[in-house]
Write a structure and sequence with these properties.
By secondary structure, the chain is of the alpha+beta class. The protein is built from seven helices and seven strands. The protein has two domains: about 5-85, GTP cyclohydrolase I, N-terminal domain (GTP Cyclohydrolase I, Chain A, domain 1), CATH 1.10.286.10; about 90-220, GTP Cyclohydrolase I, domain 2. Bound molecules: guanosine-5'-triphosphate and zinc ion (ZN). Its EC number is 3.5.4.16. This is GTP cyclohydrolase 1.
């Protein structure tokens, strides 16, 4: 994809529904380097970090780590930063006139906390009410995964998922709840292994108390929002 198209794509994401606060802070030159160029630079950076910590990078087990981490950042953990990886949300006409709520629950979330670069692991529950368009079920999981593969805060991730589905489905009637553990809270710092974080975004009809309740009942949440 050409850089102009990519920037256009980002602007388009910004325009429609996604408020500026729901965008990951990206530099203007974010996509000027190829993935291969980024991997080569990050490999050197990780090498320097480990060397500074005093590790012997000639060691057989460690010597592949800088490249391994660089590839993981670019191709896996943070792959969703690049708009070229945005999933195509195949939509269909709702010819069968299903008018009730559709809930895709227990979608696995693996993301990364942007403050500590430690994992966020949990579940997302996504729901929408069709206004004539339906989306392929797996596309909801793919949209969650795409936005999760970025340095994130959970609030922004939740909002981005809703905004993307609102755009694909042409309706505001979309909601998302995420319940996730942040390893920066569980494994370091306060080291609270039990706590998890719940975030929600309720668009359109989901702001209605009864509709919200129906959704929360489907996902077995007693939490009052
Ligand atoms: N709102 C929000 N905060 C997050 C998220 N992920 C991590 N954090 C918090 O970001 C904060 C960063 O605070 P700092 O005080 O700069 O970091 P720190 O000194 O490592 O803080 P401690 O984690 O309390 O040791 C921490 O309180 C994290 O728990 C998230 O998704 N949303
Ligand atoms: Zn953190």
């Amino acid at each position: 994809m050409k850089i102009d198209n990519i920037l256009e794509n980002i602007e388009e994401i910004g325009d429609n529904h996604v408020s500026s606060s729901a965008e990951n802070p990206l530099r203007k030159d974010a996509f000027e380097k190829t993935d291969e160029e980024k991997i080569a630079i990050i490999q050197q950076d990780v090498h320097n970090i480990l060397k500074t910590l005093g590790l012997d990078l000639e060691d057989d087990s460690l010597k592949g780590t800088p490249l391994r981490v660089a590839k993981m950042f670019v191709n896996e953990s943070f792959a969703g930063l690049h708009p070229k990886r945005k999933p195509k949300a195949s939509v269909f006409q709702n010819n069968y006139k299903y008018g009730e709520m559709l809930v895709e629950k227990n979608i696995t979330v693996y993301s990364t906390c942007e403050h500590h670069l430690l994992p966020i692991v949990g579940r997302a529950h996504v729901a929408y009410i069709s206004n004539g368009t339906v989306v392929g079920l797996s596309k909801m999981n793919r949209i969650v995964d795409y936005y999760a593969k970025r340095p994130q805060v959970q609030e922004r991730l939740t909002m981005q998922i809703v905004a993307e589905l609102q755009k694909a489905l042409g309706t505001d009637d979309v909601a998302c709840v995420i319940d996730a553990k942040h390893l920066c809270v569980n494994s370091r710092g306060i080291r609270d292994i039990e706590s998890s974080t719940v975030t929600s975004e309720f668009g359109g009809k989901f702001k209605d108390k009864n509709i919200k309740r129906e959704f929360l009942d489907y996902i077995n949440m007693d939490t009052e929002f």
